[in-house]
Amino acid sequence: MLEITENIHLADWEIEFQAIRAQGAGGQNVNKVASAVHLRFDIQRSSLLPIYKERLLSYSDQRITQDGVVVIKAQRFRTLEMNKEDALQRLKELIQEATKPVKLRRATKPTKGSQRRRVDEKTQRGKTKTLRNKVDF
């Protein structure tokens, strides 16, 4: 069982692991041992609340497929167990990001002083450009 927050837990059946061979250099052992991990998590079938599912599905993250399946490939470490822990941690961070409340933006107006400075800067810039023109004698 993976604990996301104190009230959000994922059961073991919701997360699927597949051991694969890691890419890159690894010496004699790399072609024999499947030490990398593909973690698959189906958002639609999960026990998450619908609002969190919607947020996860709305992310434009390359780890989330069009079918709504999160695929995380972990191959940072040399052992299968460490890569599993790494993949679970990355899934946990992704879901925690979706559980954070969305901060509402309040529209603000620029201050009078900043408006005045902006206009003054524009007029100064215009004067500088007029001085670059050809001079008529």
TrEMBL record:
Family annotation (PROSITE patterns) = RF_PROK_I
A single GO BP term for this record reads:
rescue of stalled ribosome
Residue spans of biased composition, Basic residues class: 125-137
Keyword Hydrolase attached: yes
Q: SUPFAM superfamilies attached here?
A: Release factor (SSF75620)
Q: What is its EC number?
A: 3.1.1.29
- Please state the span of the N-terminal signal peptide per the UniProt entry: none
| Molecular function in Gene Ontology | peptidyl-tRNA hydrolase activity; ribosome binding; translation release factor activity
**Principal EC category:** hydrolase
Please report the stretch or stretches of sequence annotated as the Prokaryotic-type class I peptide chain release factors domain: 21-37
The family line of this record is:
Belongs to the prokaryotic/mitochondrial release factor family.
Q: What is this protein called?
A: Peptidyl-tRNA hydrolase YaeJ
Organism of origin: Nitrincola nitratireducens
